[in-house]
Amino acid sequence: MKRLAIPVIVLGVILLSTGIALGCVWNAGCWLTGGGLKLEPAVNMRLAERGAKQTFGGNIYPGCSPEAGAGGQWNHVDHYQKIHFQGWTVQEVNCGYDGSIGPSSTSPDTPFNFIEARGTGTIKGIQGNKFPEGTVNVNFFLRAEDLNEPGNQKANAANGGVLIDRYYLHVWDSDGLTYLLIDTDNAAGTVDPVTITGGNLQLHVSSCP
Ligand SMILES: [Ca+2]
Ligand SMILES: [Ca+2]
Questions:
Q1: Which of 25, 74, 134, 158 is 20 to 30 A from 128 in CA distance terms?
Q2: Which ligand is nearest to the CA of 200?
Q3: What is the pLDDT of residues 134-180, one digit of tens each?
Q4: Of the bound ligands, which one is closest to the alpha carbon of residue 150?
Q5: What is the whole-number distance in angstroms between the Cα of residue 181 and the centre of ligand 2?
Q6: What is the DSSP letter of 81?
Q7: Is residue 68 scored above 50 in pLDDT?
Q8: How much distance in Å is there from the Cα of 36 to the middle of ligand 2?
Q9: Distance CA 169, CA 62 (A)
Q10: What is the Cβ-side half-sphere exposure of residue 189, based on CA atoms within 13 angstroms?
């Protein structure tokens, strides 16, 4: 696959006829893609990363309707647990702006700085891992915050900006068993995104009518 262009998480929103007040959140159709520079062999894509063990990216809601493309596909590979999560169907997307976490995204300019998505997918073991056995149907909740360009910790370099993009992911099955949690305090009930270390999260305003 070719190296991704800098925009790697894309977010769009249908309803943009009014401005956003500080702290205002809209429910709207959004686009989300994510990735980075590191080729992830498990999915043959260039994904963003959190340390050496977590890679993630793909797209969610790649159309003007949540039904378009079944809502996209999101990948998260956990090399520590040796599991691969794929989000296949998105049932709910929320885009918004939270002034307490940083400015609205700037490349391109949007009035937003976060996206949240809820949906269903699958999880399976990789690299010889036998747990879970086979492929398990799961639910997921994801939050991505686009706070800088490129948005990873390299942003701390000269002229790199100040803030770093952040990411939260919770994956659980119908029994409530958590398979994957990317969360600062490791408590799924509170959404505390972690800073990413490679790649980029990026929001775009949708051109949908
Ligand atoms: Ca970013
Ligand atoms: Ca938490």
A1: 74
A2: 1
A3: 999 999 999 999 988 776 666 666 655 667 899 999 999 999 999 99
A4: 1
A5: 9
A6: T
A7: yes
A8: 25
A9: 19
A10: 0
Write down the residue that tokens 């949708």 correspond to: 206
Ligand that comes closest to the CA of residue 144: 1
Centroid of ligand 2 to alpha carbon of 83 (angstroms): 21
Q: For residues 101 and 114, what is the distance between their CA atoms, to the nearest angstrom?
A: 9
This prediction's pTM: 0.81
CA–centroid distance, 180 to ligand 2, in Å, is: 13
- Span from the CA of 3 to the centroid of ligand 1 (angstroms): 17
Cα 168 to Cα 206: distance, rounded to the nearest angstrom = 23
Sign for the pseudo-dihedral over CA of 198, 182, 78, 68: negative
How far CA 140 is from CA of 22, 76, 96, 117, in Å, comes to 28, 11, 19, 8
Q: How far is the CA of 149 from the centre of ligand 1 (A)?
A: 4
117-139 residue pLDDT tens = 899 999 999 999 999 999 999 99
Residue 130 Cα to ligand 1 midpoint, Å, equals 35
Structure tokens at 17: 């006829």
Contact 192, 185 (CB under 8 A): yes
Q: How far is the CA of 127 from the centre of ligand 1 (A)?
A: 31
Q: In one letter, which amino acid is 206?
A: S
Q: How far is the CA of 182 from the centre of ligand 2 (A)?
A: 9
- Which amino acid makes up residue 209? P
- Of residues 64 and 88, the one with the higher pLDDT is 88
